[in-house]
Design brief:
Blueprint (H helix, E strand, L loop, with lengths): L2 E5 H7 L4 H12 L1 H6 L4 E3 L8 E5 L4 E6 L6 E9 H10 E5 L6 E5 H20 L11 H6 L4 H8 L4 H7 L5 H11 L4 H8 L13 H6 L5 E4 L2 H9 L11 H8 L6 E5 L5 H15 L4 E4 L3 H14 L3 H6 E3 L2 H13 L3 E2 L2 H15 L5 H13 L6 H6 L11 H21 L1 E2 L1 H14 L7 E4 L7 H10 L7 E4 L24 E4 L1 E2 L4 H10 L5 E2 L5 E2 L5 E2 L7 E5 L2 H17 L7 E5 L2 H13 L4 E3 L10 E5 H4 L4 E6 L20 H19 L2 E10 L11
Helix pairs in contact: 5-7, 8-9, 13-14, 14-15, 17-22, 18-19, 18-21, 22-23, 24-28, 25-26
The structure holds adenosine-5'-triphosphate (ATP).
Keywords: ATP-binding, Helicase, Hydrolase, Isomerase, Nucleotide-binding
EC number: 5.6.2.4
Catalytic activity: ATP + H2O = ADP + phosphate + H(+); Couples ATP hydrolysis with the unwinding of duplex DNA by translocating in the 3'-5' direction
């Protein structure tokens, strides 16, 4: 029985086809299985470089290009183009099997052969000027081991500059092009091999067997099982993440682990995508309910929307619950104690101040609140003695025994005040919920999948730990500590979440352009960031293979001028047919975000605050940098990137008070800017009034 496979690149182009052509494509290929049986006409192409390419009639003016194997029964739809273009496209190309991965590759052989002599001449001239070939340091044997075949090798040998590789990406076989990229970016052959790792199979494969190669290529080709699945794929042609996963991503999705596991990686590397696929895969195993959770409610909503798109069957959707950790905590708490009365932030400051007055403690409310959260609650300290003995890792200001005793007294006063008034903080609700679940033998979930894990506090981890039994594949974590934007630093191991040896790092950014990513990475240059597991995290090798425009940086004399320019920029984007919902505006403070939203509305641009609920298609989303976490926009403007907003003085402990916390706070502010800037997919615009933030790299 013939089967149809759809090439990833085609799906992206499908979205751009005119509606009637799209409909014809659906009709033609919906009949594909029985039509091929009864002689669906696949026409051979004269003068083709590769005889395995065929065309198929779509309508009077369009033809589809299909790769038809000599043996086997999988037909891969590669292109739909106007008649002559379809033939021209197919004649130039060849299909092959990558010798390292066994996966299918398509290349524009004619372009490679045409361009190569030009580059060769250029290289000869440059060699006279004594500049080395780009891959002078990589042996032929290493190239071959990495799957570079003779045609690509000949081509690579005449390259002298990385930019030539950029141009060649359009015609080289994609995996080989990625390998060359990695090598040109300074990765060693071993590092590139490691990156290919997940794609390398132990099996012997036949370089002529395209059918098997297609089956081995889930990152590039999706096999559809009939008209229903075909229509489902065509219905969401932009959501490539639903059907094609990078081998590293797929490995993370499918792996079986004896305990907790995690996936890390820089911004936009598909951690959320992996988390969602993983949740589906776990649900399909049928071992019990799956909880997908994260820090903010905004992100939980976007995860829920993603899950709906991905789920496939109602059973999966029913098995997977999506809610942010605070909501889970409140739900569990409510079931036992009813609705908690929550302490509001301004009241908390007052309570700390009065408690400190009563005990004569010479500490500010901010310090006391942090000491309570980061040390006492985080370590579940419940007596003066254990507080005296406790390590205060991450808290810079040293406290002598007398000072500690005073802090402890103040904390007891504060907690008594809370009890007397029947008030709870979020942390206490969470801790109580964790206690309730820890005592239950019947856990509400079998698996928990956590996204944006870097920001969860110790009490939230305890709650999640208590929500699932300790078993294989109990907890799956996705996160990037370079994107930590709250003060929670935890050691997973100490919290009973041991991921030792079960961690994978993703490196390819699918969201943003190389220009925006490269510039954003500079924001964190030289920062050393922990990995929540006793080591250091790295963003080495994080890269994007899409190029575009560099970020635009502009300073203004005052806010009015800056916001006027913002409105102009957003209008330009809209005029270029970017939809309002594809545009984001980020600011450090809520106040500035509101000002920006007002300025846009006043200029006739539909805009709404992200804090007001879910993003909408017909309005530009404006929000604080904190709200931007986990989201993405085609075009993003960061406003107020000036010295007195970023870092925000309010969020940074004075160095004189506590040097370590000061350094942590500064790093968090940097990370916040990094998170905001890496939300941009195509265009990033950063503006400020007066003096620019010291964190901004020099050029745009
Ligand atoms: N295999 C893939 N194919 C196509 N697109 C992908 C793939 N994986 C991820 N993407 C796309 O890349 C973008 C970033 O993915 P995702 O949000 O999962 O990354 P992330 O690592 O969680 O990002 P961040 O940490 O910055 O929030 C999304 O638009 C997603 O659809």
């Amino acid at each position: 029985m013939p089967r149809l496979a759809i090439d990833r690149d085609f799906l992206r182009e499908f979205a751009a086809l005119e509606k009637p052509v799209q409909e014809r494509v659906e009709e033609v290929f919906a009949k594909f299985d029985h039509a091929t049986h009864t002689g669906l006409h696949l026409e051979k192409i004269t003068h083709a470089r590769d005889q395995r390419f065929r065309t198929i009639r779509i309508d009077r003016s369009h033809r589809g290009v299909v790769l038809a194997p000599e043996s086997g029964d999988i037909y891969t739809l590669l292109k739909v183009l106007p008649h002559d273009d379809a033939y021209a496209w197919a004649r130039r190309r060849t299909a092959s099997v990558n010798s390292a991965t066994g996966r299918i590759e398509i290349r524009d052989s004619e372009a490679i052969d045409t361009v190569r002599p030009h580059l060769e001449r250029m290289a000869a001239t440059q060699q006279r000027a004594e500049s080395a070939p780009l891959f002078a340091g990589v042996s032929d044997a290493d190239m071959r081991r990495l799957g570079i075949d003779p045609q690509t090798l000949d081509f690579a040998r005449v390259l002298t500059e990385p930019v030539q590789l950029e141009t060649a990406k359009a015609f080289l076989p994609p995996t080989q092009s990625q390998v060359l990229y990695g090598l040109a970016a300074g990765m060693t052959p071993e590092e590139v091999w490691e990156e290919l790792g997940a794609a390398i199979t132990e099996d012997e494969f036949d370089p002529e067997d395209l059918d098997a190669a297609v089956r081995r290529s889930p990152d590039r080709v999706v096999l559809v099982d009939g008209p229903r699945e075909l229509l489902a794929v065509f219905a969401r042609p932009f959501d490539l993440w639903r059907v094609y996963l990078h081998p590293m991503q797929r490995e993370a999705v499918e792996a079986r682990h004896s305990g907790p596991a995690r996936v890390t990686g820089g911004p936009g590397t598909g951690k959320t995508v992996v988390a969602l696929h993983r949740a589906r895969a776990l649900a399909e195993r049928g071992e019990g309910p799956v909880l997908v959770t994260t820090f903010t409610s905004t992100l939980a909503e976007s995860l829920a929307a993603g899950m709906k798109v991905l789920a496939g069957t109602p059973e999966v959707l029913e098995t997977v619950a999506v809610e942010n950790v605070d909501r889970l905590a409140h739900r569990v708490f409510r079931e036992v104690h009813g609705q908690p009365r929550l302490l509001k932030s301004p009241d908390e400051r007052k309570l700390w101040s009065t408690a400190a007055e009563r005990t004569g403690a010479d500490f500010g409310p901010a310090f006391l609140a942090e000491e309570w959260r980061q040390v006492i609650l985080a370590r579940q300290i419940d007596s003066a003695d254990s507080y005296l003995a406790a390590k205060r890792t991450g808290r810079g200001r040293r406290l002598g025994p007398a000072q500690k005793a005073r802090v402890w007294q103040t904390v007891c006063e504060f907690q008594r005040d809370l009890r007397e008034r029947g008030l709870w903080t979020y942390e206490q609700v969470c801790a109580e919920a964790a206690r309730i679940l820890a005592e239950r033998d019947d856990k509400p979930y079998r698996h928990v999948v956590v996204d944006e894990a870097q920001d969860l506090s110790a009490d939230k981890w305890r709650l999640l730990r208590a929500a699932v039994p300790e078993a294989h594949d109990d907890i799956f974590i996705a996160g990037d500590t370079h994107q930590r934007i709250y003060a929670n630093r935890v050691s997973l191991r100490e919290l009973g979440v041991n991921v030792g040896g079960r961690s994978r790092r993703l490196r390819i950014n699918y969201r943003t352009t190389a220009e925006i990513l490269g510039w954003s990475l500079e924001l964190l240059h030289g920062e050393s960031v922990d990995d929540m597991d006793g080591g250091l995290e790295t963003l080495a090798g994080c890269r994007s293979e899409v190029s575009g425009f560099p970020p635009q940086l502009n300073g203004f004399g005052n806010r009015r001028a800056e916001l006027r320019a913002l409105a102009d920029t957003v209008r330009e984007w809209l005029a270029a047919e970017v939809l309002p919902g594809e545009i984001g505006v980020a600011a450090r403070s809520n106040r500035l975000a509101e000002e920006a939203a007002d300025a846009l509305v006043a200029a006739g641009v539909p805009a709404r605050m992200l804090s007001g609920g879910r993003a909408e298609e017909e309005a530009v989303s404006v929000g604080t940098m904190h709200r931007m976490k986990g989201l993405e926009f085609r075009c993003l403007a960061v406003v107020g990137a000036e010295a007195d907003q970023i870092p925000s003085a309010k969020a940074v402990t004075p160095e004189s008070e506590d040097a370590v916390t000061h350094a942590h706070d500064l790093q968090r502010e940097r990370c916040l800017l990094f998170v905001a800037c890496t939300r941009a997919r195509e265009l990033l615009n950063v503006t400020w009034q007066g003096e620019r933030s010291p964190f901004l790299p020099p050029t745009g």
